[in-house]
UniProtKB/TrEMBL annotation:
Family membership noted in the UniProt record: Belongs to the RutC family.
Protein source organism: Spongiivirga citrea
Name under which the protein is recorded: RidA family protein
Cited InterPro entries: RidA, RutC-like_sf, YjgF/YER057c/UK114
NCBIfam families xrefs: Rid family detoxifying hydrolase
């Protein structure tokens, strides 16, 4: 059985999907981009600020599912430009202990929603 996870502390979906789905003990989180959940404006002042907003959005969804970044077992990072990898990775690293960090892939893509620079999705387990 699946349970829809939603919070007003993260941006509302802009299409036919949910912020996350909990199936059993596994949380499948949709990709987040750098929308400020209050203003629904994109935070794109710098790649670091954009990544911080993405991580805040993901944290809010995790919290709504009664989880933290410690529960994350897999992340997918999508970049519009691999030259941003180092800065994105530096911000990402703040949220995880390197010794217990989740599995991850990082890929460059031709485009992302709203032409942002970074999108991140996650899978977490209770």
């Amino acid at each position: 059985m699946k349970k829809v996870i939603t919070t007003d502390q993260a941006p509302a979906p802009i299409g036919p999907y949910n912020q996350a789905i909990l199936s059993g003990n596994t949380l499948y989180m949709s990709g987040q981009i750098a929308f400020d959940p209050v203003s629904m404006e994109l935070v794109t002042d710098s790649i670091a600020e954009e990544t911080k907003q993405v991580m805040k959005n993901l944290e809010a969804v995790l919290y709504a599912a009664e989880m933290t970044f410690e529960n994350v077992v897999k992340t997918s990072i999508f970049l519009s430009d691999m030259n941003n990898f180092s800065e994105v990775n530096s911000v990402y690293a703040i949220y995880f202990d390197e010794s217990t960090a989740p599995a991850r892939e990082t890929v460059e893509v031709a485009n992302l929603p709203k032409f942002v620079n970074v999108e991140i999705s996650m899978i977490a387990i209770k």
